Amino acid sequence: MLVDDGNDEEIANFLKEMQEFYGKNWIKLFRLQENQGPGAARNLGWDASTQPYIAFLDADDTWHPKKVELQLSFMLSHPEVALTAHRWTWLEKWGGDNVPDNPSKVKAHPISPRKLLLSNRLATPTVMLRRNLPFRFDPRKRFSEDYLLFLTILLSGFPGFYLEATLTYLHKPPYGASGLSGKLWAMEVGELDTYLRLYREGRIPLWILMGIVPFSLAKYARRVVRSLAWRRKV
């Protein structure tokens, strides 16, 4: 299933050609007439899906060939689990020594909601969810909308597990790829908004909110430094 979030006509035509080549029974294509953000696009695909589990893949990321097989196998074997995620890595180049290993078995451990509050390890293209969960991405939220959803699921008592295998590959730095501090600040504001929403919804107490905000700001400062280092490297 492909969701076109208001791209230009060239990309839209390319997606149509892909659908015609593989067939409409193989690729379902949905198009938003104007860009509505990642939350709205993912919700559209989520609501249109028919299988019991769903996963998300953005246009600039790739999956290991065994990602779906390994992750789905774990979830089918543990039907009580609502969410799984796994490791990812940033690949500047693909091929040669950069081609990843071929895992056959993976270890898994529960995801701690409180640890997730301190550090968001759940990159969206690594996540697989049960389709029937009573939650969705907030379509009005442009930054940290995925973090809010995953924390809401886990803090609501739904179990999640982390698979110790690298099955997703990012082909640009995970943040600060453009070197624009303004975008990094928007991401930080989105994260702070996530914490505030969780507090207002009664999912975290005030003392956790008061502790996590300065910790988040410290992480933001580190991201700015790392972003500048990546820009110099490129």
Q: Which regions contain 5 or more consecutive residues with pLDDT less than 50?
A: 176-181
| First and last CA, distance | 34 Å
> Helix segment count?
7
Number of strands: 8
Overall outline: globular
Residues in β-strands, percent: 15-25%
The H-and-E topology, N to C, reads as EHEHEEHEEHEHEHH
Sheet having the most strands: 6 strands, mixed
- Helix content, binned percent: 40-55%
Short key terms for the protein model shown above:
alpha/beta, six-stranded mixed β-sheet, two-stranded parallel ribbon, 8 strands
3D structure, described in words:
This protein has 234 residues and is α/β, with parallel strands linked by helices. It is 43% helix and 17% strand. The chain contains seven helices and eight strands; from the N terminus they run E-H-E-H-E-E-H-E-E-H-E-H-E-H-H. The strands form two sheets. Strands 3, 4, 5, 6, 7 and 8 form a six-stranded mixed β-sheet that branches. Helix 1 links the parallel strand 1 and strand 2. It is globular, with a radius of gyration of 18 Å. About 3% of the residues have low confidence.
